[in-house]
Amino acid sequence: MIVGIGIDIVEIPRFEATISRQPAMIDRLFTAREQLTDEGHRRTATSLAARFAAKEAVAKALGAPQGMQWHHCEVVGESSGRPHLYLSGTVQEQAAAQGVTSWHLSLSHDGDLAVAYVIAEAN
Amino acid sequence: MIVGIGIDIVEIPRFEATISRQPAMIDRLFTAREQLTDEGHRRTATSLAARFAAKEAVAKALGAPQGMQWHHCEVVGESSGRPHLYLSGTVQEQAAAQGVTSWHLSLSHDGDLAVAYVIAEAN
Amino acid sequence: MIVGIGIDIVEIPRFEATISRQPAMIDRLFTAREQLTDEGHRRTATSLAARFAAKEAVAKALGAPQGMQWHHCEVVGESSGRPHLYLSGTVQEQAAAQGVTSWHLSLSHDGDLAVAYVIAEAN
Q1: Cβ of A110 and C56 within 8 Å?
Q2: How far is CA B48 from CA B34, B122, C64, C95, C101, in A?
Q3: Given an 8 Å threshold on Cβ–Cβ distance, is B6 in contact with C106?
Q4: What integer pLDDT is reported at residue A37 of this predicted model?
Q5: Are A109 and A8 in contact (CB under 8 A)?
Q6: Measured between alpha carbons, how far is B18 from B12 in angstroms, rounded to an integer?
Q7: Would you state the pLDDT for residue C68?
Q8: The pLDDT value given to residue B80
Q9: Which stretches of chain B score pLDDT less than 50?
Q10: B16 in contact with C at a CB cutoff of 8 Å?
Q11: Residue A100 CA from chain centroid, whole number
C-alpha cells in the first residue's frame, strides 16, 4: 500500500545562485555527511540540488506537515548504486505515525534541471 | 497493486502562450472551482499548467482511453497540503472499470517547468 | 510491493547533438524495432530521447547493476496507448533475480525535455 508520493524539480542555476548568495543555507539544509561525496570531496551544486529536491519530495509524500527539520531527512549513498533516505527525529516520527515502512527514491539531472521522485510505502 | 502510472511535464511559457491566444481553453480544461485558489483568486498560468499536467498524467495512468472529459478529472486542495483528485463521470467510470481504488498525485514546478506524477492503485 | 523506482530526464537538444556526432550510438542503444514507429518511420530525436530515459530509469529501478545491455530493455507500443517494456537477457535476469513481476512506465516530453518514470513491482 502506498502512503504518499512526492516529486520535486529544481532549476540548478537558480539553486546555485541562492546558495552562493546565502552560503549558510548549505549547513541549514544538509548535514555534514551529505555535503561530501563518498570520496570526501564537496558536492557540486548539481548534486546538492538533486538532494534538496529529494527532501522536498519526502515532505510532499508525508503531506508537508509542520515542524519537520531538513537535517532529519538525509540522502545517502548515491554514488554506489541506489540513493537512499536516512530519516531521523521529526521526519521519522511523521513517517512512523503514517505507517510508512519503506521508502523508494530516484534522482536525475540533466542540463539545468534536477528532479527527485519518492514513494512512501506501508507493507 | 498498481494499476497504472503517469507523468507529464509542461513548459509553462508555452502553456501560457496557448491559453492567452485561446482563452476559451481555460473553461474547456478547468472547472470553475479549479480556476480559483482557496482564497478566491484566479490561478496563475503556472498553477494551471501543473493542474493540466495532472490531468494528462491521470489519462496516461488509465491508458489514455477515448472519451474522457477534462472536467471529469479535477485537481483540488493543493494550497493546504497534498493536492488530490476528484474524479467524476467519464474518468471515474474508466477508473472503476480498471479497479482503481486510490489515487496518488504530486505536483512540482520551478523555473519554466511544471510536472505532475500520478499512481493509480487497487487495494 | 515495490522493488524499485527510477526517473530519468534528458535534455533533448543535447541528446540530439550526441547522436548526430556519433550516429553509431543509435544502433548501440536501440534495437531495430525501437528505431521505427508503428507506421514504419524513423523515430525523431525527441522520441528516442524519451526511450533512452526509460532505459536509464529501468536501470535505476534495478539498482544500476553491472553488465546490463541496452538492447535487453526495449520500449514498445507508445503510439497506441501505454508504452511498455519488453525485457530480455541481462535485464530480464536482473529483474527476475530481484523478484520483479510487473513493470509500470510513463513517458513525457515538452519543449527541450524528455522524462521517463518507472516502477518495478513484485506481486
Answers
A1: no
A2: 8, 28, 36, 38, 37
A3: yes
A4: 87
A5: no
A6: 10
A7: 94
A8: 57
A9: none
A10: no
A11: 17
For chain A, what is the mean pLDDT? 94
Residues of A in contact with B104 (CB under 8 A): 2, 4-5
pLDDT tens digits, C17-57: 999 999 999 999 999 999 998 888 999 999 999 999 999 99
DSSP state of C116: E
* Domain extent listing, chain B: 2-121
Instruction: State the number of CA atoms in the 13 A half-sphere of C33 facing the CB.
Output: 11
* C10: β partners: C114
Asked if the Cβ–Cβ distance from A117 to B117 is below 8 Å, we say yes
Sign, CA dihedral A25-A62-B86-B116, equals positive
- Among B39, B42, B9, smallest CA distance to B26 is for B42
Q: Which chains touch B (3 or more CB pairs under 8 A)?
A: A, C
Phi-psi region of C46 (alpha: psi -120 to 50; beta: other; left: phi over 0): alpha
Residue A21 neighbours by CB under 8 Å, 6+ apart:
none
pTM (2 decimals)? 0.95
DSSP assignment of A2-58 equals EEEEEEEEEEHHHHHHHHHH-THHHHHHS-TTTTB-TTSPBPPHHHHHHHHHHHHHH
Are C117 and B117 a contacting pair at CB < 8 A?
yes
DSSP B2-13: EEEEEEEEEEHH
Question: Which range has the worst mean pLDDT, A29-33, A65-69, C24-28?
Answer: A65-69
What subunits touch chain C, counting only 3 or more CB pairs under 8 A?
A: A, B
| Model-level ipTM above the cut of 0.95 | no
Q: What does DSSP assign to residue C65?
A: -
Q: Provide CATH code, domain A2-121.
A: 3.90.470.20
Residues 6+ apart with CB under 8 A from B92: B72
Q: CB–CB of A119/B121 below 8 Å?
A: no
Higher pLDDT, C98 or B77: C98
Find out whether A4 and A62 touch, Cβ atoms under 8 Å. yes
Contacts of A122 in chain C (CB under 8 A): none
Mean pLDDT across A80-102 = 92
